[in-house]
Structure formats: C-alpha cells, structure tokens
Design brief:
With about 210 residues, the chain is an alpha+beta fold. The chain has six helices and six strands; from the N terminus they run E-E-H-E-E-E-E-H-H-H-H-H. It has a four-stranded mixed β-sheet, with helices on one face. A two-stranded antiparallel sheet has the order 3-4. Strand 1 and strand 2 form a beta hairpin. The longest helix has 21 residues.
C-alpha cells in the first residue's frame, strides 16, 4: 500500500468528508461505516491502521487508540463515482463501541434460506455463516463460549484439537459408520475454520487454491 493518493479521483462532500465502509478482510463481514477527511485518509495510509473524522466530536479519531481494538488495513478501494471507500481490515477486537464484532447487528429484513435463488449455492452457505460467527466470537469473546475458550488458549490448543478431530475422522471411517463420520467430520471442519481465523487466512483463499488445482 502506498501513501500516494489520487486526490482527483475522490469526491469529498461539502464538509470535506467521504464515507468509508470497513470490512473484515477474512470473514467479509461489514464492520462499520465511518467518515474520513483528507488528513485521516492520509494517516490511514501512512500508519496502515484506520483513522476517521468524528463528526460528533469534530476531531480526528484513531480507531482503537483507547480500546486497543485497532484495525490493520489490508486494502482500500474507491467506488466508480469516487465518493465512497471500502477499507478491508484485520480487526484486533470488536468494531462497535458496544463491544459487538460489527456495528450492523439489527435486521430490517430477516435473512432467508433462499440463497440459491439469488445466485448463491446454499449448499455451502453454512460455511460462510460459521466463518462469520467464529470471527465474531474472536472479537467479542463472550463468556462461556467454547470458541472463546479456544482463542484464549491459543494456537497450540487449536492445533491439538485439529489433530484430535482428524484422528477421530480416521477412526470413524475405519468403523464404516456414516453417523459417526458425519459427526467427527463436522467437528474437524469447525476446528479447521477456527484455526484459519486464528491465522487470519480467509476460507476464500483455500477455496481459490482448490479451484487453481482443478
């Protein structure tokens, strides 16, 4: 990423601001909508962390400066009109001031299971949902959550669980038990997704590798 900005491509509003949609680079979840002015945009590119302009406080705002929930910038793009930004980040904790993973928690229209009619193969929709849920657990760390427990114990514990579940898949297959294999394979996939999140490797990149090999 370069700190050089094609200012002529960007359109700031009458207050000198441009909206910035912040997206988790791993889970693809939208985290928040904030605003940048020229100074905060420049600082964001220079520090590789998000800086915004607080409209309520009328001051520059370094995300995570007090909470520690910084956002490491992976990429920044502007739209076809040059009047909005998408900032892809690796978040270090919740994005919302409420402690939630994403600021977008409320639903005006409830999601449905009609993903296939919208051009999405819903056979694998659960993987995207699970990836997003695991990302939220990592950020929010709710008490009593098994996923929270794994993240707090760290990579060695997660690796141990991946190894254990892989061994149990092998045993289930040797037993020729579809019910046992289905259960153990589900455990393995879940723990593998937790490991991918801990390593900040998007599932999309794994799928792209499979596509490349095909």
């Amino acid at each position: 990423m370069t700190a050089e900005i094609a200012w002529e491509q960007l359109k700031f509003d009458e207050n000198g601001l441009i909206p910035a949609i912040v997206q988790d680079a791993v889970s693809k979840e939208v985290l928040t909508l904030a605003y940048m002015n020229k100074e905060s945009l420049q600082k964001s590119l220079e520090t590789k962390e998000t800086w915004f302009w607080s409209r309520s406080r009328a001051e520059l705002w370094h995300k995570g400066a007090t909470s520690g929930n910084t956002q490491q910038i992976v990429s920044m793009r502007y739209d076809c009109d040059g009047d909005a930004l998408v900032v892809r980040v690796v978040p270090n904790g919740p994005a919302c001031h409420t402690g939630a993973y994403s600021c977008f928690a409320g639903e005006l229209v409830e999601g449905t299971q009609e993903a296939s009619s919208a051009g999405v193969d819903d056979r694998f929709a659960i993987l995207a949902e699970l990836e997003a849920l695991i990302a939220a657990r990592e950020a929010e760390r709710p008490e009593g959550s098994y996923t929270t427990y794994l993240f707090e114990k760290g990579v060695d514990k997660i690796l141990k669980k991946v190894g254990e579940e892989a061994a149990e898949v092998i045993i289930a297959a040797k037993n020729r038990s579809h019910e046992e294999l289905r259960y153990e394979a589900s455990d393995l996939i879940f723990h593998l997704l937790v490991l991918l999140r801990e390593q900040k490797l998007p599932l999309d990149q794994v799928l792209s590798e499979l596509q490349r090999r095909r």
